[in-house]
Design brief:
206 residues; alpha/beta; Ribosomal Protein L4, Chain: A; 2 domains
Length: 206
């Protein structure tokens, strides 16, 4: 499929053929949901923790004798039912990551790219480069282009000046092609790919 290539000045400079096998797939919400859940699960620290009765400080003496008081038997002040006792079945340190097949992850990334293309929210940029790392200059280009919530994916490496200028602009994320992922693509309204990014992604996913 044909797609226009524009410059940062919002002028058409070229056109490019987008590979149907990467940018023309049927959108599957179930695959996207599985991938997003997988990514977010991997990000979780899993550092939540409560102390069990074996971990809290306290006496190990039997509080009172076993029989003769008419009370329930009790062997420790650390029991979960007592104030200051350990927590029963509380959260523990653990990893929340789960497995997801490589072919599903690859399909999910293709589907995310195809979804943006189908919605008309995929833009191909000639190059994401700047002579000086000036946020004000880049902000003018962004305003002219009408971008508000954007993920820009560059080639193998991002231009240092462009990345530095984009760092202070709210709603603009910049990633190299290797960092392209489903969650970041979906969380931004517009997806911008440089010509180098298109080549890298097609080579990676085809």
């Amino acid at each position: 499929m044909k797609c226009d290539v524009i410059s940062l000045d919002n002028e058409k400079v070229d056109s490019i053929d987008l590979d149907e096998s990467v940018f023309g797939l049927k959108v599957r919400a179930d695959i996207l949901a599985r991938m997003v859940n997988w990514q977010l699960a991997k990000r979780r620290a899993g550092t939540q923790k409560t102390k069990t009765r074996s971990e809290i400080r306290g006496t190990t003496a039997k509080p009172y004798r076993q029989k003769g008081l008419g009370r329930a038997r009790l062997g420790s002040r650390k029991a979960p039912q007592l104030r200051g006792g350990g927590v029963a079945f509380g959260p523990v340190l653990r990893g929340h990551a789960h497995k997801l097949q490589k072919k599903v992850r690859r399909l999910a990334l293709k589907t995310a790219l195809s979804a943006k293309q189908a919605d008309g929210k995929l833009v191909v940029l000639d190059a994401a480069k700047m002579e000086k790392a000036k946020t004000a200059d880049l902000a003018k280009h962004i305003t002219k282009l009408g971008w508000r919530s954007v993920l820009l994916i560059d080639g193998a490496e991002t231009d240092p000046n462009f990345s530095r200028a984009a760092a202070n602009i709210v709603g603009l994320d910049v990633l190299p092609s290797q960092g392209a992922n489903v969650y970041d693509i979906l969380r931004r309204d517009t997806l911008v790919l440089t010509k180098g990014a298109v080549e890298q992604l097609v080579e990676r996913l085809k």
